[in-house]
Amino acid sequence: MKETVKKIQLISMISFLAAVIFLLIFILSLQFKPKSKNKTPEQQERLILGFSQIGSESAWRTRNTQSIYEAAEENGIQILFDDAQQKQENQLKAIRSFIVYQVDVIAFVPIVEDGWDNVLQEAKDAGIPVILVDRQINADPSLYAGFLGEDGIEEGRRAARYLVNKCKNRTDEVTIFEMSGTENSSVVRDRSNGFREILSAYPKFKIIHSENGDFLRSRGKEIGDNLVTKHFYGANRHGLYFEGTKIDAVYSHNDSMTLGLLDSLAEHNINTKDTIMISVDAEQKSIDALTEGKLNCVVECNPNLGPKLMELVKQIANGETIPRITYNSETMFTEDDDFSKYEPRGY
Ligand code: GZL
Ligand code: ZN
User: Fold this and answer.
1) Which sequence ranges are marked TM in the entry (predicted)?
2) N or C: which end of the chain has fewer CB within 10 A?
């Protein structure tokens, strides 16, 4: 009898040890398998996109982010999203974490044009393709697969063509005050250059000052406050002045800064009926200001890049090359439009 009990104990000890060893091997195998093998069957085809967004500085940016999330959802693409809070170093960290995680594709909005070569080389060495979204960079083109976004130069040209047409019967000088966006960003360079390219053919246009408003409503308000308190001459409360010169037109690189300027004009009860106001983005609040007669022209910059981005992600994941540049369709709104035809902007 005793013998039998001993045998049973021995057998159960061996089978327990075998189970423990099997479990250990299974757990260890999970640790060392590359990520892609860990996926369940339904996840196997789910692409993973690492996306670094610059922040939420404007309604435009918020809509841009929403569009990307919505499209990822619709396309069954898993998104690792990072909000850089307007700091390039946070974007560099996020991109490096996407590389470690071995995402399938990286896409990012480069807040400024320079400083991306090293991190893009690391992504290239890791075999992870990169798509630039919304803004462009100064880097070796072989370090990224392509760009998707707006044609900032054409947006600047549109603003200038509107102004040229608006002033076609004026023979005197037309003075312009420019509010520019985030310094060293490609979109500011493009919107400035496109605007100046068209005006260069008409000597009567003079850009008398350009101020950096960093695409922020609060900065647009400050710029307005300065114009009204430091540069305002005379008590007629009509129009804006810079260093004693009347400002005939304001060209603002985005609606947030424009709306900030309008906040200041309202606060200081300044009438700018005869100041030509031109803005870029076309968020709902600026279209409302246009229909209320506070703005004359709003150039659209289309934030809805999500659907196109996911198409490009899937093309790349299938080993296809993507176009070096993919522009979004854009239009322009002016005081001469039939406002009843306007659709809600959605942001
Ligand atoms: C333009 C985009 C700009 C928007 C601003 O493509 O980069 O950044 O015009 C946003 O509203 O802040
Ligand atoms: Zn004030």
Assistant:
1) 12-32
2) N
